[in-house]
Amino acid sequence: MTFDFSGLDHDFFMREALKEAKEAGERGDLPVGTVIVHADKIISRGSNRIETADNYILHAEIDAMHKCASFLKKHARECVLYTTVEPCIMCLATIVMANIRHVVFAVKDQYMNMDPFIASNPYIKDRLYHYVGGVLKEESEKLIQTYSPYMYQIVLLGKKPGDAP
């Protein structure tokens, strides 16, 4: 199978991730959604469930990867993970350890500031073949502002959690 990252409809798949984010926000979780794509088909969906599952590690990316873990064991390198917010340190490390090499996100996390982490870590940097941000950024920003003004202050404005209203 030939993998063509540039031939994928990134907007379409990000819209699907945004649907997951909206559902998360509506149920009281942080509005973050993820879809995992293989061969131009969604193989898994996930959303943030920190509040409703009472589990700090149940981020959208973790939720989606867990649901298709056995598939990823054989096909991860041909998968693309789409997520509405740039993966945090925990999620990015898990994505790389799951052998997913292609990540697309909507908004950059200004507080986490992942660029220096990636640049300074050859293990992570060498395993991310594509790491693309800004896809449907405005739509994700709007969801964050609507469902979690607190998250908006941290992720989009880069304020420290204690300094955000």
Automatic annotation (TrEMBL):
Among CDD domains, the record links this protein to:
nucleoside_deaminase
Q: Does the keyword Zinc apply?
A: yes
What are the BP-aspect GO terms?
A: tRNA wobble adenosine to inosine editing
Recorded superkingdom: Bacteria
Q: Keyword set for this entry?
A: Metal-binding, Zinc
One of the entry's Gene Ontology molecular-function terms is: zinc ion binding
Annotated transmembrane regions: none
Question: What name appears for this protein in its UniProt entry?
Answer: Cytosine/adenosine deaminase
InterPro entries named among the record's database cross-references: APOBEC/CMP_deaminase_Zn-bd, CMP_dCMP_dom, Cytidine_deaminase-like
Where do the CMP/dCMP-type deaminase domain residues begin and end?
Answer: 8-120
- Zinc as a keyword of this entry, yes or no, is yes
One Pfam family hit: dCMP_cyt_deam_1
